[in-house]
Structures are given as C-alpha cells and as structure tokens.
Design goal:
142 residues; mainly beta; OB fold (Dihydrolipoamide Acetyltransferase, E2P); five-stranded mixed beta barrel; 1 helix; 41% strand; globular
Length: 142
C-alpha cells in the first residue's frame, strides 16, 4: 500500500504549469513538516516534502493555498527519473496529492480575502469549485 498523510506549512505559494501534451494543470509546492521528536538541547527539525497536485485539486491548491499556511495532504509517494539535455540522470521523489485540507485553526478577529476563512477539513479531491464543502464550528464533533 502506498499512502502518505502529511501536515505542514507551505514554504512557498504553489507554482502552476500545464503539461505540453494535453494542457493539464499541475500545481507544485513544498511542505515543511516538523519531525515528531526533538532531541534534548536541539531545535525542532523539519523535512521539506515536494507535493504535486493535478487537475481540479491542483487548481484548488493554487487558488487557496499560500506560503506559511498549514495544510494536510493525503496522497502517494512517486519516484521518477529523466535525463537532461547534457545526459545527466535526475531522480525525484515527491508526493502526488489525492486530497488537500486546510489545517490552520480559525483565529478570532482574523479576516481573509477568500471565502474559506471558516473552513476546516475542506477537501478538493475530484471536486469542482462549486462542490467544496464548508464546515462551520457547529458542525465539528469536538
């Protein structure tokens, strides 16, 4: 089974590009994910994980995710290789996002330009922009 669940902060705004063959949207970004344990006397370590989101999910991420925002990603690990123009082989390991969620807590008095300031756990997996659900605090089980 190949399943990854990550929660971290975006290190930069998502970067959008389109494939050459069929013009499919691809959003790329990186998450800083804190390691679970801290050694005594050391600062907390973080891993920087590359994320790729395709099509509608990529569109959602590029529109609503911003640098510094805490998000949760569910997906799978993918490795790929290619040779550049100089014949040098490149290796990449990345997470292909299948679901994306807002993970920041709502702050009192904080305003936002997006319509999702009260959102928790919104998923964009296989959804169109009109299908995004917004949960209020009253809908949460805790």
């Amino acid at each position: 089974m190949n399943k990854v669940i990550l929660m971290g902060r975006l290190t930069r705004d998502p970067e959008v590009r389109y494939t050459q063959t069929n013009n499919t949207l691809v959003a790329s970004f990186s998450l800083a994910v804190n390691r679970r344990f801290v050694r005594q006397g050391e600062e907390r370590q973080a891993d920087f994980i590359n994320i790729v989101a395709w099509s509608k999910l990529g569109e959602f991420c590029s529109k609503y995710f911003k640098k510094g925002q805490q998000v949760a990603i569910i997906g799978r690990i993918q490795t790929r290789t290619w040779d550049d123009d100089n014949g040098v082989k490149h290796y990449v390991t990345e997470v292909v996002a299948e679901e994306a969620y807002f993970a920041d807590s709502k702050r009192d008095g904080e305003s936002s330009n997006s319509g999702f300031e009260n959102t928790f756990g919104t998923t964009a997996s296989n959804a169109t922009s009109s299908e995004f659900s917004v949960a209020s605090d009253d809908d949460l089980p805790f």
